[in-house]
Write a structure and sequence with these properties.
By secondary structure, this protein is mainly alpha-helical. 59% of the residues lie in helices and 0% in strands.
Length: 113
Amino acid sequence: MSRLIRKVSANTSNVVETKNLADIKSKTGNLYESIAIVAKRANQINISLKEELHNKLDEFASHTDSLEEIHENKEQIEISKAYERMPNPAILATQEFLEDKIYHRKADNDLFS
């Protein structure tokens, strides 16, 4: 698991908490823009977590095509449970956004002026 996600998830609870919309809006001046930034960051976190989980689980994959019963690997189950216990990527992204840990910039809209 990446260091950033570990650090943020250590300080973030798994429980969804209500956030003050004024705080979210104050970061960009526009609530919808702030939510779009959080959503993009949540997608980035989700993709990186999926890649890490699949890489770890690929170590346990058997590459034989047999009809034998697949035995359960306790280490594989523990890894899966650890990722299930992690906070939702949207919660992590919101926490990062409120703590000013996300860099964002506004694109120039003067193309058609």
